Write a sequence for this structure.
């Protein structure tokens, strides 16, 4: 990777120092699948480091995740990463999924503990004979093959971590078990991310902590997601979208301005890797990539 000494200057000259990855979810219906492919085909020419496909709560999308990941890889040539959780399955069942990925030529996995089907508010109960947490899962995946593994990090602390020491110890365990990078939960206040980087550096962690950027296609929807996963929505952000429910054009303009502001502030602080949560839409992400000087070939 060519990391310039001055990321802002390189943004202005349109070089390509930035490494992007894009997260999708497995579509449920034919109409949703059409949108999925339309977005994948628009974003693949940006040469992302990888495109990842999430794993539904409780493993409910096991087959669909596998199918989409395999097809993305086959149809676009882009590296595809499969999200995988420990929920509702024995170690042997999870290992079987990993073996299937290995056989299908999928080399990247985003390894997660997952949440109970009722959501992150409920305590996670280890499945009898299942993996207890993401660190165990990373070790299990490593034992099966030479995968590139990403894990989750939380700029505002995971809601179930009692304090930051436990949080950072857990992140370190996941990376020490064989993950190459962490991708963060969505966050809207960059100072939370910068504080996480400080804590991580203090703990001697050198792996990249890639910011997970959630463009706000719909404030109502995204603030609902944020509440479910414990990400804060600052008052200033809510105020920017206040009253725009019935004004999609202004909502879209504010959304792109908010996302651009967040990303460019990160760039100005030297961030060169971004993971965009696309929600299977391409427009805002394409626009953000352009601001970074990343264009389709
Ligand atoms: P872990 O790292 O295992 O940690 C969870 C909590 O348990 C932390 O509070 C940690 O401190 C604590 N903990 C872990 N081990 C120990 C221990 N030994 N002792 C004490 N405490 C411990 N969910 C899905 O269902 N599907 C997805 O596709 C998906 N993709 C995601 C992608 C990203 C980038 C992120 C950030 C999250 C994603 N999630 C997904 C959500 C994730 O599953 C939840 O946030 C879940 O609550 C925690 O997962 P984890 O991998 O961070 O868990």
């Amino acid at each position: 990777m060519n990391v310039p000494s001055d990321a802002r200057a390189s943004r202005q000259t349109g070089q390509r120092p930035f490494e992007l990855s894009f997260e999708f979810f497995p579509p449920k219906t034919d109409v949703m699948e059409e949108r999925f492919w339309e977005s994948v085909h628009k974003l693949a020419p940006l040469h992302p480091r990888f495109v990842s496909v999430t794993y539904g709560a409780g493993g409910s999308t096991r087959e669909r995740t596998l199918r989409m990941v395999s097809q993305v890889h086959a149809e676009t040539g882009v590296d595809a990463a499969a999200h995988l959780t420990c929920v509702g399955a024995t170690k042997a069942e999870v290992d079987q999924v990993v073996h299937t990925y290995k056989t299908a030529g999928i080399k990247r996995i985003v390894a997660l503990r997952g949440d109970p089907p009722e959501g992150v508010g409920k305590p996670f109960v280890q499945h009898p004979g299942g993996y207890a947490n993401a660190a165990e899962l990373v070790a299990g995946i490593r034992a099966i093959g030479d995968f590139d593994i990403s894990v989750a990090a939380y700029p505002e602390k995971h809601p179930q971590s009692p304090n930051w020491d436990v949080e950072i110890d857990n992140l370190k365990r996941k990376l020490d078990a064989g993950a190459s990078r962490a991708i963060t939960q969505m966050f809207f206040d960059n100072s939370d991310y910068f504080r996480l980087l400080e804590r991580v550096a203090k703990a001697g962690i050198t792996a990249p902590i890639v910011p997970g950027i959630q463009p706000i296609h719909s404030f109502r929807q995204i603030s609902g997601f944020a509440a479910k996963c414990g990400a804060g929505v600052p008052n200033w952000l809510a105020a920017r979208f206040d009253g725009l429910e019935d004004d999609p054009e202004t909502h879209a303009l504010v959304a792109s301005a908010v996302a651009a502001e967040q990303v460019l502030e990160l760039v100005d602080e030297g961030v060169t890797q971004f993971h965009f949560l696309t929600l299977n839409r391409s427009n805002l992400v394409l626009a953000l990539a352009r601001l970074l000087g990343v264009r389709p070939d």
Summary: Residues 54-55, 57, 83, 85, 110, 112-115, 120, 133-134, 152, 158, 160-161, 166-167, 170, 174, 183, 185, 212, 229 surround flavin-adenine dinucleotide (CB under 6 Å). The radius of gyration is 18 Å. Residues 168 and 177 are 14 Å apart (CA to CA).
